[in-house]
Amino acid sequence: MNQTFEVSGMTCGHCEKAVTRAIKQVDPQAEVLIDRSHNRVEVQSQQPREALAKAIAEEGYAVAA
To answer: How is the chain split into domains, by residue range?
Structure first.
């Protein structure tokens, strides 16, 4: 299932890696595509949206509803 999140606060490659790592902790098989310039994170995962959003938020980034 493809899910798109609006994530603010990502300013560098390290931020992208942190968000990717957080998602992969929830779903190691997830495919993650980040477009930092548009604050967009696309995730291909069967995990619930809430679990993925929580993982990103716990990493310190704001996730729009």
So the answer is: 2-63
Phi, psi dihedrals of residue 29, rounded to the nearest 5°: -90, 0
* The model's pTM: 0.94
Q: How many helices (H) and strands (E) does the chain have?
A: 2, 4
Domain 2-63 is found in CATH 3.30.70.100: yes
Q: For 61, what's the count of Cα atoms within 13 Å in the CB-facing half-sphere? A: 30
Q: Tens digits of per-residue pLDDT, 6-46?
A: 999 999 999 999 999 999 999 999 999 999 999 999 999 99
